[in-house]
Design goal:
CATH superfamily of the largest domain: Dimethylsulfoxide Reductase, domain 2
Number of strands: 21
CATH topology of the largest domain: Dimethylsulfoxide Reductase, domain 2
Strand order of the largest sheet: 16-20-17-19-18-21
Strand content: 15-25%
Oligomer: single chain
Structural class: alpha/beta
Shape: globular
Number of domains: 4
Helix content: 25-40%
CATH architecture of the largest domain: 3-Layer(aba) Sandwich
CATH class of the largest domain: Alpha Beta
């Protein structure tokens, strides 16, 4: 997030797109409700009628995969009405003219034709966002999990720069992380192209810094993303895989492809706290300690680094993840000897400028938001106050591209996927909690009443859903939360997992799969 969670409650306009915030990030949602109580305008863009829609001043129900067209339509209006901020654009950005030329084609009427959102609603949303003194954008994986995910994010950045709604309190572009320490994993180099602190593996200075610190020869080649690793197992170019705290059998698209790829590994090692569907395929399972059984830190969605303290000892042979990694490394012949997680944090601070001032003794209380470059730095509440990290903010001329897979006569329904309030990701933990599992014990396929009538399907009937990759049987929930021709199925439930059906097509830059859109057919179960 460019800004902090607490700042949301003071924004004059909140634009939520691709985020079912009340379900997946309820504490962030409370700040949205507080802002509404103070008189803020709320604009919600989502193909599904989520809970936040009941509070929205404008609801934009866009067709699946049309976010770029929607955002370009809003920005066309902002320019036409002179609601943009010329001084901000002149002083702090570049690439504006090429960007402006692209927007000329996206009149609100043209955007309405692509997105299915009425032109007057596009105009009203643009007005609320652009004319507010402070407006903030909140998005989640409904924006990123597309073959145009990078384009979607660039378009949101365009919108913020066009209106000067960035670099100040209660503004910004604020992605909500999907799991509790995803931000920390990325910060620590859990990406194929960077070392800790987003220092590129392709730069000579970064290579030398980490090679010297670790006394090791390091590659200058960008690694593979998870989908590319699975393809590597499938084609034989990768022979072994270690999976830590991840359940790709359930969370990645096209479950049949994932299981086939993992079954080809000559060695599959899974490190987790429960015997997940992925762990069941492993040659070796290493029992990890859960959050309450180890010391460490989490870095959350607002860049806040906080302490985690051991409350109880790990059961059986379970160990903290860092201990397991060190043990394996030592057995491979590369010595890793740390006294504690605090010693690891000290090494992180010595090599990672944004974490330079962070140490365990400074993390008492509420933690620190990076960047905190030195010991006297209090942390950073919001980013880009006077200058962008790259100098000037870059406008991108982005055009609308349709999803990789669209509906046709054989597969006439759009399918999208997401989460429900009682469960978390692949429900590895939540379905082991009887109270949460009792709240929502099974996955249901959301189906519009008009489609249900056409198919002769009633609430609770079992149907067969098929895509080009697989099929499954599931009970229905007839509801107007989804529009005609659109289906929604959560991925928490292995017995009715939406990722049996989803598409492996990737964004060409980020290599993230298009989990949010695919084409399916629907029929009554035999």
């Amino acid at each position: 997030m460019t800004n902090s969670i607490e700042e949301i409650q003071d924004a004059e306009c909140i634009f939520v797109i691709g985020s079912n915030t009340t379900s997946s990030h309820p504490l962030v949602a409370t700040r949205i409700f507080r802002a509404k109580q103070k008189g803020a305008k709320l604009v919600v863009a989502d193909p599904r009628k989520i809970q936040l829609v009941t509070e929205a001043d404008v609801y934009l129900r866009q067709n699946l995969g049309t976010d770029v067209a929607l955002l370009n339509g809003m920005m066309h209006v902002i320019l036409e009405k002179n609601w943009h901020k010329p001084s901000f654009i002149e002083e702090r950005t570049e690439g504006f003219e090429a960007f402006r030329k692209v927007l000329a084609d996206y009149t609100p009427e043209k955007a309405a034709e692509i997105t299915g959102v009425p032109a007057e609603d596009i105009i009203k949303a643009a007005e609320y966002y652009a004319t507010a003194e402070t407006a903030t954008i909140i998005y989640c994986m409904g924006i990123t999990q597309h073959v145009t995910g990078v384009d979607n994010v660039k378009s949101l950045a365009n919108l913020a720069m066009l209106t000067g709604q960035i670099g100040r309190e209660s503004t910004g572009v604020n992605p909500l992380r999907g799991q509790n320490n995803v931000q920390g994993a990325c910060d620590m180099g859990g990406l194929p192209n960077v070392y800790p602190g987003y220092q590129a593996v392709t730069t000579i200075d970064a290579q030398k810094k980490f090679a010297d610190a670790w006394q090791a020869e390091l590659s200058d080649q960008i690694g593979r993303t998870i989908p590319e690793m699975l393809d590597g197992l499938d084609d034989g170019s990768i022979k072994a895989m270690v999976i830590m705290g991840e359940n790709p059998v359930q969370s990645d698209p096209d479950m049949a492809h994932v299981k086939k790829a993992l079954s080809k590994a000559e060695l599959l090692v899974v490190q987790d706290i429960f015997m997940t569907p992925t762990a069941q395929l492993a040659h070796v399972v290493l029992p990890g300690a859960c959050f309450a059984e180890k010391d460490g830190t989490f870095s959350n969605t607002e860049r806040r680094v906080t302490r985690v303290r051991k409350a109880i000892e790990p059961p059986g042979d379970a160990k903290a993840d860092w201990e397991i990694v060190c043990d394996i490394s030592n057995r491979f012949g590369y010595a890793m000897h740390y006294d504690s997680p605090a010693a690891i944090m000290d090494e992180i601070a010595s090599l990672t400028p944004s974490y330079g001032g962070i140490s365990y003794d400074r993390l008492e209380g509420e933690g620190i938001q990076w960047p905190s470059p030195h010991k006297d730095h209090p942390g950073t509440k919001f980013l880009h106050k006077d200058v962008f990290a790259r100098g000037k903010g870059l406008f991108h001329a982005v055009t609308y591209q349709p999803p990789a897979e669209v509906v046709d006569e054989e597969y006439p329904f759009w399918l999208t996927t997401g989460r429900v309030f009682a469960h978390y990701h692949t429900s590895t933990m939540t379905r082991n909690c009887p109270h949460l599992d009792a709240e929502i014990p099974e996955g249901l396929l959301e189906l519009n009443p008009t489609d249900a009538d056409t198919l002769g399907v009633a609430d609770g009937d079992e149907v067969k859903v098929s895509s080009r990759r697989g099929e499954l049987n599931v009970k229905t929930e007839v509801t107007d939360r989804v529009d005609k021709g659109v289906l929604f199925l959560p991925f928490h439930f292995i017995e009715s997992n939406a990722n049996v059906l989803t598409n492996t097509a990737l964004d060409p830059i980020a290599k993230i799969p298009e989990l949010k859109v695919c084409a399916v057919k629907l029929e009554k179960a035999a």
